[in-house]
């Protein structure tokens, strides 16, 4: 997830035009997600992804990133937190509309790789509240927004983290990869 230095994932109006991405970051993310077969989204982020990625790789001017990520997106199992979407209409997609903790823990026990959460601040907040996040993969952008949608909001309990890796990109973005230390 992209984050500002002061902890925001989007501006007050959900703007994300401050996020720095380039081929170096796209290549790194592509390698990281290639070993993952599941993505979790909130409904709004899922709608945004679904409106772009299924066909993005087929466009005549598609970039290397668009082609690779479109292929991955189309093959990945999508998990969507939503009270309005209906699962019957969607292929390779699971909708979680209630019993978040039980349902997600059940999915985590099934065969497959880790589940990556993409964007989705509201979904992230719900997962944090239920203690369902096993790690944080953050891309800290060199900007202070001053206000916006925070990544960490209404935290009930302390969460200890262990830094697993860092990487600085030439754009000034720094990747921080943490795992949650469970008692």
UniProtKB/TrEMBL annotation:
Any one biological process term the GO annotation gives: riboflavin biosynthetic process
Gene Ontology terms for molecular function: 5-amino-6-(5-phosphoribosylamino)uracil reductase activity
Q: Which Pfam families match?
A: RibD_C
**Highest taxon of source:** Bacteria
Domain Bacterial bifunctional deaminase-reductase C-terminal intervals: 2-173
Membrane-spanning parts: none
UniProt cross-references to SUPFAM superfamilies, sorted A to Z: Dihydrofolate reductase-like
What's the protein name? Answer: Bacterial bifunctional deaminase-reductase C-terminal domain-containing protein
Lineage, opening ranks: Bacteria, Pseudomonadati, Bacteroidota, Chitinophagia, Chitinophagales
């Amino acid at each position: 997830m992209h984050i500002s230095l002061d902890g925001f994932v989007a501006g007050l109006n959900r703007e994300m035009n401050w996020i720095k991405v380039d081929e170096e970051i796209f290549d790194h993310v592509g390698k990281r997600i290639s070993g993952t077969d599941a993505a979790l989204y909130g409904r709004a982020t899922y709608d945004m992804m679904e409106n772009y990625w299924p066909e993005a790789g087929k466009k005549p001017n598609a970039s290397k990133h668009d082609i690779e990520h479109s292929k991955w997106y189309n093959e990945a199992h999508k998990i969507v937190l939503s009270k309005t979407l209906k699962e019957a209409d969607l292929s390779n997609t699971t909708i979680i509309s209630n019993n978040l903790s039980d349902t997600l823990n059940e999915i985590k026990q099934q065969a497959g790789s880790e589940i990556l959460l993409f964007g989705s601040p509201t979904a992230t907040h719900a997962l944090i509240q239920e203690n369902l996040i096993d790690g944080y993969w953050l891309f800290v952008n060199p900007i202070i927004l001053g206000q916006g949608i925070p990544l960490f909001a209404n935290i009930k309990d302390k969460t200890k983290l262990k830094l697993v890796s860092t990487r600085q990109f030439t754009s000034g973005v720094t990747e921080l990869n943490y795992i949650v230390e469970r008692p």
